[in-house]
Amino acid sequence: MSSASPKGGLEDVVAATSSICYLDGDRGVLAYCGYDIHDLARSATFEEVCFLLWHNRLPSRRELGDLQSELAAARPLSEPVLRLMRSLPPGDGMDALRTLTSALAHWDGGSVDQSPAARYRTAVRVTAQIGSIVATWGRLAAGGGPIAPDPVLGHAANFLYMLTGQRPDATAVRAFDVALTLHADHELNASTFAARVAAATLTDLLSTVVAAIGTLKGPLHGGANADVMRLLLEIGETASADRIESVVRAKLARKEKIPGFGHRVYRTEDPRAAHLRQMSRDLGARSGQTAWFEMSQRIEALVKAEKKLNPNVDFYSASTYHALGIPIDLYTPIFAVSRVSGWTAHVLEQYANNRLIRPRADYTGPEHPQRFVPLDQR
Ligand SMILES: CC(C)(COP(=O)(O)OP(=O)(O)OC[C@H]1O[C@@H](n2cnc3c(N)ncnc32)[C@H](O)[C@@H]1OP(=O)(O)O)[C@@H](O)C(=O)NCCC(=O)NCCS
């Protein structure tokens, strides 16, 4: 039996074959089904990316139109789901998303039909529903009433509309759409791996998404984007350069991790970070709030100089979402709004060529056999 990777965490272990996502951590290359992330960020919509991930090719105009219609038809939340959402106490958006996504199974009948066609329909449906759940949760948390989706809007525009009740402008829609594209897939990241492990037991697709949501929530994974904004707020909008530096240095001295920096795979800059940095700069300037971008830049320079660490996808997402007026509690759920496309693509791929994922552990416990001592003699 081969031993575990020396530092643990399955580092550098190849655990699956996949035709969905290409990642070269040394050169900073990310591509979905062969399409470079920079081209997709510049030219594709999130719906095109969903089709690409699910079908391994770009859609024709007609195919894209069909998918847009299917997503639009699947967006309205059912009354029972809305009732359940209203009955939850205010709290963490990822807790709510996990509960409500799990609850969809009771009304979707998704676990009965396990044919590939039914699983694909569930993938489309859960992608549409997660957008509506997160937007409506945010809306209720802000004291508003639920907004029905507008079927003429694309996924990004509809999300912002359901969240705010306002028609978003083209700049906001484009920025959010690009953010969704950038987060859509990332090879065997922790939540996608969790989803594939679940799928490999042949459980239903919705269960795999619930496993992924619980995994994404962690601060070492998707939870980092909200932690970045908390750090920026802790430092304070009007903080001097000295204060920024002293807060970050103090954290590093305490061996605390700075959220939004470092990556298991990239040895150079995360290619997604460049787009988010630019969006953070542009949207900050547009909203007249340049402080968060400027502070982020100072933190980036300091962490690079001190720890030789680059920002990852989460670092500039924080100030980007802030400039779009999105509340912090939604940052990680929004990651799920996008990543559900990648999770489901990987899960469909796993189902299509499945073998149970069941690795081994190097045993390091007490020697065998131990003499069993009855309870009253211990
Ligand atoms: C992403 C992450 C989990 C990858 O972790 P990993 O591959 O297991 O790397 P490690 O945690 O072993 O870190 C290696 C070294 O870099 C340091 N390091 C890694 N990320 C760091 C960060 N964000 N801030 C400060 N130091 C960091 C570690 O402390 C460790 O230092 P040491 O060797 O002196 O102990 C890690 O970089 C991290 O926790 N980042 C912050 C959370 C985050 O942004 N997550 C989103 C990822 S997209």
Layout of helices and strands:
Elements: E1 21-24, E2 29-32, E3 35-36, H1 37-43, H2 46-55, H3 61-73, H4 79-87, H5 93-108, H6 116-141, H7 155-164, H8 170-183, H9 190-199, H10 205-216, H11 224-235, H12 241-253, H13 271-287, H14 291-307, H15 313-323, H16 331-352
Antiparallel strand pairs: 1-2, 2-3
Helix pairs in contact: 1-8, 2-16, 3-6, 4-5, 5-6, 5-10, 6-7, 6-16, 7-8, 8-13, 8-15, 8-16, 9-10, 9-16, 10-16, 11-15, 12-14, 13-14, 13-15
The chain binds coenzyme A.
Summarize the structure.
The protein is mainly alpha-helical.
Say which CATH homologous superfamily of the largest domain is assigned: Citrate Synthase, domain 1
Helix-residue proportion:
55-70%
Residue-averaged pLDDT: 96
Note the beta-strand portion.
under 5%
Give me the CATH architecture of the largest domain, please: Orthogonal Bundle
Low-confidence stretches: none
Question: What class do helices, strands and sheet pairing give?
Answer: mainly alpha
